[in-house]
Amino acid sequence: MAVCVAVIGKDNSPKYILCLNPNQELQFHYRVHTSLDVVEEKLKTTGDRDVRELYIGQLYSTEEHKIFGYVTNTRIKFIVVVESSSTSLRDNEVRMMFRNLHAAYTDVVCNPFYIPGDPITSKNFDNTVRRIVSGN
């Protein structure tokens, strides 16, 4: 389903990035960081938005990819990049990917040995993201 998943801190520093194809990793880093400008713009324009709605939706698309965003109440940003050719992907499926990602992130942050702000190195989190990327 997804070809790249990123967790970005509230200071826009990457906490975790997984790309399906390591040869295109630099391209996906660029797309993720480009999408952060769109996320910040959407957060500014929707200042009175419902705080329970964390899903931002599609940020932008290119010929090859669609980029979706999700922001937690603590301003942690989740970015998911999917291929444009996957036309069978519905909005509910993208929301489910973000819910699973958010739940896995919550488990990482609740770990007493995790230092907030550090990169995410949890094997359980990595396994969850790999399941999201593979579509299982």
What does this structure look like?
With 136 residues, the chain is of the alpha+beta class. It has helices at 25-45, 91-110, 123-134; strands spanning 2-8, 14-19, 55-61, 65-71, 77-83. The chain starts with a strand and ends with a helix. It has a five-stranded antiparallel beta sheet, sandwiched between helices. The mean pLDDT is 87. The relative contact order is 0.20. It contains three helices and five strands. Helix 2 (91-110) runs antiparallel to helix 3.
List keywords for this structure.
136 residues, alpha+beta, 39% helix, 25% strand, globular
Percent strand: 25-35%
Mean pLDDT: 87
N-to-C SSE series?
Answer: EEHEEEHH
Poorly predicted residue ranges: none
Number of distinct helices: 3
Helix percent reads 25-40%
Shape: globular
> Gyration radius, to the nearest Å?
14 Å
